[in-house]
Design goal:
Elements: H1 2-30, H2 35-42, H3 47-72, H4 75-89, E1 96-100, H5 108-115, H6 127-135, E2 140-148, E3 152-159, E4 162-168, E5 171-176, E6 181-185, E7 195-197, H7 205-212, E8 222-228, E9 232-237, E10 242-244, H8 249-266, E11 275-277, E12 283-287, E13 292-297, E14 309-310
């Protein structure tokens, strides 16, 4: 009996030892670390912090998915539109327009743009679009649009300055220094501005102004100018004479300076001469009322006297 018990006990003890050995072996297996665990040990944050970061990342991913779905279905736009409608019903809608800076242009076009927007809610009004529409008006050089709650739109306009009247295709247009057409004008209401004539003459207005700065004494006497052949100017003075200048900025400026000097010495303008031709840098030609011309070398032109000969430039263009 005792022997049997001893066997059973021994067996039991052996089994227990084996179990402990097995559990110990499993314990050692669980304690083995993967390369991920080793990498985490080198990070400057704790494992708990990493878990929180992972949780927030998962939340962020799901949130981004939800937002993307909402955008795809147009929910934000619907919400904005609903908010704009509520604001409009509450009185936050464009009902008044205050225009500043307008002196010459017709304000009606500004009001038409400001009050003609499809969505006039003060909250959703597209101010950049309103400004872009304003800048399409010829007179408007710049514009600033702002809201004044609850129902007023403030429009600050910077106008262009008219410097000439452009005649082209039988029409008269007021233009600024860069050649932008401001508005049409009638011959009976011509402003006191120089008249520029010819195709693309409006785009040469800045060059004409720069040219006339070389002879400031002649600038007040200028009545108009014709852009000839898309390459040079014929100047018309208030006393009725025409001055034909050569091509090129440098040559035309030099010729104009010489003419201003000669006019200052001999009073060429106002003497009944029809035309002065300085296209040839070596010759100065004066066309008289009878169709005759006087031609002198440029070095003696300041002392030129009438010696009529047949006009060699008759019928010549450009």
């Amino acid at each position: 009996m005792a022997e049997a018990r001893i066997r059973r006990g021994g067996t039991a003890r052996l089994s227990s030892a084996k179990g402990r050995a097995t559990r110990g072996g499993r314990g050692r297996a669980l304690k083995r670390r993967s390369w991920v665990d080793s990498l985490i040990e080198y990070l400057p944050v704790s494992e708990a912090t990493l878990q929180r970061m992972a949780s927030w990342a998962i939340v962020g991913i799901f949130g981004a998915i939800i937002i993307a779905i909402a955008i795809f279905m147009g929910l934000p736009g619907m919400a904005r539109q609903q908010a704009a409608d509520l604001a409009a019903r509450a009185g936050f809608e464009v009902e008044k327009v205050e225009v500043r800076g307008v002196e010459r242009m017709d304000e009606l076009s500004v009001y038409n743009i400001a009050l003609g927007q499809v969505d006039r809610s003060m909250l959703s009004l597209d101010l950049p679009k309103v400004r872009a529409d304003m800048l399409r008006l010829g007179w408007v050089k710049d514009a600033r649009i702002s809201r004044r709650l609850p129902d007023t739109l403030v429009v600050d306009i910077v106008e262009r300055d008219p410097v000439a009247v452009w005649q082209h295709g039988g029409q008269l247009h007021l233009i600024d220094v860069s050649g932008v057409v401001l508005q049409s004008v009638s011959a009976s209401a011509m402003p006191d501005l120089p008249l520029v004539v010819g195709p693309n003459a409006n785009l040469q207005t800045a060059g004409l102004n720069k040219l006339m700065e070389n002879a400031p004494a002649l600038k007040p006497m200028l009545a108009g100018a014709t852009w000839v052949g898309n390459r040079r100017w014929d100047l018309r003075f208030q006393s009725g004479e025409t001055l034909s200048l050569p091509e090129g900025d440098k040559d035309s400026a030099s010729a104009l300076v010489n003419f201003a000097r000669m006019d200052g010495v001999n009073r060429l303008l106002g003497r009944g001469i029809v035309k002065f031709d300085m296209r040839d840098p070596d010759r100065f030609v004066l066309r008289l009322p009878q169709g005759k011309v006087e031609e002198k070398p440029m070095d003696a032109a300041a002392q030129a006297t009438a010696a009529p000969t047949q006009d060699p430039t008759a019928g010549e263009e450009g």
